[in-house]
Amino acid sequence: LPSFVSGLYVRLVGQIYFIVALTVLPLYLHNVLNVSILHVGYYMTIATVVIVVSSPLFGRLVDYWGSAKVNLLSLVLALLFSLLFLLLSAQNLNLSLFVVLLVLVGLVTGANFTATSLSPLQDIQVSRQNQALGLVFTFAMFGDVVGLMLFSSLNQQFIHYWLRVMKHTFTLLGLSSQQ
Fold first, then answer.
1. pLDDT tens digits, one per residue of 121-177
2. Where would I find the H helices in the chain?
3. How far is residue 138's CA from residue 126's CA, in Å, rounded to a whole number?
4. Terminal C-alpha separation, the chain
5. CB of 121 closer than 8 Å to CB of 129
6. What is the rounded CA–CA span in Å between residue 124 and residue 110?
7. Nearest-CA neighbor of 73 among 96, 100, 54?
C-alpha cells in the first residue's frame, strides 16, 4: 500500500508539471520567441512523439527496476527541465534549446505516466484494482486542475501587473481619464 499512495502523489506532481508545461510552453514559444501559431503546434508535437516513443521503454524499466525508481527518475528529469527553463533567459533560449526542453517534457511525462499507472496496483487486492485505478486517474485529473489553477493565478497576476504599468504610463503621459 505505501507504494500505491506514493505513486498517487508522484502522479499528482507529474500531472501538475505536465499541464503547466502544456499551457506555458506554447505561450512562451509564441509570445517570447515569436514563433507562429502553426509552428507552435509543430513544436509541441515533439513532446507528444517523445511520450509515445518513450512510454514503452519506461514500461520496460518499470519491469526491471520497479515503479519507485522510475518515479524517482521522472522527478529528477522534471527538476532538470525546470532548472534549465529557469536558468535560460529569453535571450539565451533559442529554438534548438527549446526542442531539448520539449524532449525533456516528453521524457518526464512518459516516465511518470508509465510508472504511476499500473505497477502501483500490484500492492492492491485484485478485487479492488479497478477502484484503485479509478483513484489513480482521479489524482491525475486533480493534478491537471491544480496545474491550471496555478497557471491561471500566475497569468492573472501577470495581467494585473501589466495593467497597472499601462495605467501608470498613461497617467505619466497625461493620457489618463483620471486627472
1. 777 888 888 888 888 888 888 887 887 777 677 666 665 665 566 566 556 655 544
2. 2-31, 37-65, 67-87, 95-117, 129-172
3. 19
4. 65
5. yes
6. 23
7. 54
- Orientation angle between helical segments 67-87 and 37-65, nearest 10 degrees: 150
- Which cell numbers hold the place of 49? 512523439
How far, in Å, CA of 145 to CA of 156, rounded? 16
Q: Looking up cell 491537471, which residue turns up?
A: 144
Whole-number Cα distances in Å, 55 to 19, 35, 114: 18, 28, 6
Secondary structure (H, E, C), 1-45: CHHHHHHHHHHHHHHHHHHHHHHHHHHHHHHCCCCCHHHHHHHHH
Given a contact cutoff of 8 angstroms between Cβ atoms, the answer to whether 132 and 1 are in contact is no
Enter the pTM of the model.
Answer: 0.69
Of 121, 9, 100, 94, the residue nearest 46 (C-alpha): 100
CB-side neighbour CA atoms (13 Å) of 126? 0
